[in-house]
Design brief:
heterodimer; A: about 325 residues; two-stranded antiparallel ribbon; about 75% helix; about 5% strand; globular; B: about 230 residues; alpha/beta; Rossmann fold; six-stranded mixed sheet; about 35% helix; about 25% strand
Amino acid sequence: MTRRSIEIGMAVSAATFLISVPWLIPALTDNFWVSVITEILIWSLFAASANLLFGYVGLLSFGQALYFGFGMYGVALGIDHLGLSFWPAFGLGIVSAIAMALVSGVFAVRLSWHYFAIITVVFSLIFYFLAVSMKPLTGGDDGINFSLPPVFRFGGSIWSLTDPTFQYFFVLAVVSLCFFLMYRVINSPLGKGFLAIRDNDLRASLIGLNVYVLRLIAFVMAGFLAGVSGALFAFFGRYASASYMFYQVSGEAVVWTIVGGAGTMFGPLVGTTLFIVIREIVSSHWEHHSLIVGLLAILAVIFAPKGIVGLWNGWMTRLGERDAASAPPRLTLQAEP
Amino acid sequence: MLSLRDVHVHIGKLHILQGVNLEVRPGESAALLGRNGVGKTTTLRAIMGLVSKSSGAIRFDEFDLSNYPAHKIPGKGIGYVPQGRGIFPNLSVLENLNIGVTGKRDTEREDYVFTCFPRLKERLKQAGNTLSGGEQQMLAIARCLMMRPKLIILDEPTEGIMPRLVSQIRREIYRIGQSGVSILLVEQNVETALKLCPNVFLMEKGAIVYSGAAHDLKGQPEIVRRYLGLSQ
């Protein structure tokens, strides 16, 4: 089996599985798992925002929960306080997260390494405590609940996220679109600039790349991804809570990214899937399931520093080299002298 | 073209550059020589805006480089190949070449750098960190050429390179100089520097102590011995 055939097989299997989830999962097990997979998709987008910064630009952020929270509250306050319909509320959540990322990014991306990590935590904590203290507006830790407005109305028919199948496909479409956008950016000259900064920011500036501006663009883009995931999670749970703005939530995204594979497109999806499935299976039997998370993170850092996807890519590269070595030599025609 | 006038640089309490005066004219190749630790690399870093000068003036064409942050200096026409090559290890050869090019891909310029360094064309999709040391150095110089610089600053370009590739790199540096691009070369190998560059600056304790033609320096063994620790 060649590398190419394995990769095509994996992609087709994953796509078939994701499209058939609403019918396949109830046939095999409980409906509850459709909801878990929806949640995995949302959180993997959140982890992708941490991955964009850490894996592609080299900035370790422990503050992505702030933009997740702004996405959540944009939706919740938009619907509950401002009486907005679905799409304006969704837009408000995303724009709020982008605006917050821009404001905090202007200060944060001047720093790097641990200073950057610390300032992201500080921003996250400031707004977490503000959200907790402004209980009449935000509901604090208890959060605010809202009723879902319909997504579309066509004549007499109403499409709403209250339908679990529609909700799943809506989340799948939005998350896929965001991953596609991220893929396009990473493979564009802008993305190569991100990678150059991650490899060596000094060298990058010596060839004319404005490190500050590129980092700010990446930071705002990561804020966008976190904001979209926060907005989706608000629709998914029909509520928003300040507890999701705590830096521990950001830390989880970093762990999922590292275990899945930082700097790879699907590492966050793999890491998030692994940890949420473990949480769902183990937590009903053992309350200390976080110990497994910690143990896996340690093992991943020691034995798979590039994460599960990095390990997989290594195998695929070796397989590709083996394919190339075993390929028959190319025949060339030589002219008669 | 490039002129440094009485440039002083302090790093912490250390007075590293103590009044450097240096000039590279258009189309001229100049070597900056001196023992280890005399301030050669700091001089280059000051030109590129990587260290702040305490006083003095650094001008390139009509620009006062003190007014520009490091990332804007390459846009003024100065290419810098730092010591230790400075390629991006996780980008491919082609990506490394184009990373500093703004706007659309400059295939005409790519063809030019491939005529200088044909080995790179054979390795377009290879990641930078899979190249040999000599190939990485070629890539660093080629990347610099992609930005069509008026002046190239090279910091020890043949250090730690396989001898077989050193001669090719030297030959290309000479050809770059012949094509009208100015060169400021820092090189430990004095013989190489004197062959490639008609003009020489000698540094000692953070200042230029000798400037003149390379062939004149060859006739002054006392100066070579005193400032470079070499006997001819």
